[in-house]
Write a structure and sequence with these properties.
alpha/beta, Rossmann fold, 2 domains, seven-stranded parallel sheet, five-stranded parallel sheet, 10 helices, binds NADPH dihydro-nicotinamide-adenine-dinucleotide phosphate, binds oxalic acid
């Protein structure tokens, strides 16, 4: 089995060593521009277009991440073979840690206590009532479900929204465009963990914010293009949104001088909510390659029409 590999921004020697150790019978090679030699599989994260465009003989493409938005931007240039994506692969627990921390920080008013402490002020603030503090999760896939479990553990009322209806114990589930308005109604903290598709682009906009409880909190850990950044700035000015924790941005790295940097109500992290750990990823990729070779049914196949 011949496998070409391209993993933007990662330590290739480290990753290739892990892949070769886990699947010694395969020939893994780092793809370099001009390499048109045959390959059965391509393992990729953010590959240059000419790695895959027009390539013949591939059996499948494996995306070394959860989101396939960048890959699918290649459109018809992508070979017409199955595209597989990572499912959890160690990311879900990290995303749950991140989202839960952000919800708790806002719920327990830690940012306000921090600001008081900076002013050497010792003062109790009225606590939020958990029963009224509904958390809404947009996206109930591998990651959204894990986030829901984590928040349920702390006793939050949890709502979830997906494209097709789900039944998850303890979670009030909503589905589809028709279910969006009811899902958003009175939500106090909104977490976005949707894939970026034609339907979900710019979904975090003024209309969405207006449906939430006044003074709601926003957590976007999906993609920057889900958020209309000017609408967030306006909602912060009016008080409709009290604050936000953002891991992803329209432009990454977030440009110097971007208004988000200087707004104390916005917590910023550099797209680190769910790191792609090598060993979890290698384990999952090897399982998927084995299943493909044996012609077995496999999960995590991207539906190109749906965009995820
Ligand atoms: P999944 O494909 O497992 O889940 C996606 C969820 O979104 C599903 O519940 C799906 O509904 C729902 N969904 C998709 N389209 C719509 C729509 N139009 N309306 C309502 N719901 C919709 O993805 P993952 O949970 O693995 O990952 C989600 C995203 O998180 C990734 O695409 C990526 O962009 C982002 N991510 C970010 C990371 C970071 O470090 N910041 C790390 C990892 C992922 P249904 O269940 O009906 O299919
Ligand atoms: C992913 C990511 O989609 O890291 O895997 O953003």
């Amino acid at each position: 089995m011949k496998v070409i590999y391209y993993n933007e921004g990662e330590d290739n020697a480290f990753w290739l060593a892990g892949l070769r150790a886990a699947l010694p019978q395969a020939e893994f090679r780092l793809w370099l521009p001009g390499d048109e030699a045959p390959a059965d599989y391509a393992l990729v994260w953010d590959p240059p277009k000419n790695m895959l465009a027009g390539r013949k003989g591939l059996k499948a493409i494996v995306n070394l991440g959860a989101g396939v938005d960048k890959l699918l931007q290649m459109g018809d240039a992508l070979p017409d073979v199955p595209i597989l994506r990572l499912e959890d692969a160690g990311m879900a627990v990290q995303m749950a840690e991140y989202a839960t921390y952000a919800v708790l920080r806002h719920f327990r008013r830690f940012d306000e206590y921090d600001r008081q402490a900076q002013r050497h002020e010792w003062q109790f603030l009225p606590s939020n009532n958990k029963r009224d503090f509904t958390v809404g999760i947009m996206g109930l896939g591998a990651i959204g479900k894990r986030i829901a479990q984590s928040l349920l553990h702390f006793g939050f009322p949890v709502r979830g929204w997906s494209r097709t209806r789900k039944a998850i114990q303890g979670v009030h589930c909503f589905a589809g465009t028709d279910g969006l308005e009811d899902f958003l109604q009175d939500v106090r903290a909104l977490i976005c963990v949707l894939p970026l598709t034609a339907e979900t682009t710019s979904i975090l906009n003024q209309k969405t914010f207006n449906k939430l409880a006044f003074g709601a909190y926003l957590i976007n850990i999906a993609r920057g293009k889900h958020l209309v950044e000017d609408d967030l700035l306006a909602a912060l000015s009016s008080g409709r949104i009290a604050g936000a924790t953002l891991d992803v941005f329209q432009e990454e790295p977030l440009p110097p001088g971007h208004p988000f940097w200087s707004d104390p109500r916005i917590a910023i992290t550099p797209h680190m909510a769910g790191e792609t750990f090598r060993d979890d990823t290698v384990r999952q990729v090897v399982e998927k390659l084995h299943a493909l070779e044996r012609g077995e049914a496999i999960s995590g196949i991207v539906n190109r029409k749906n965009g995820y």
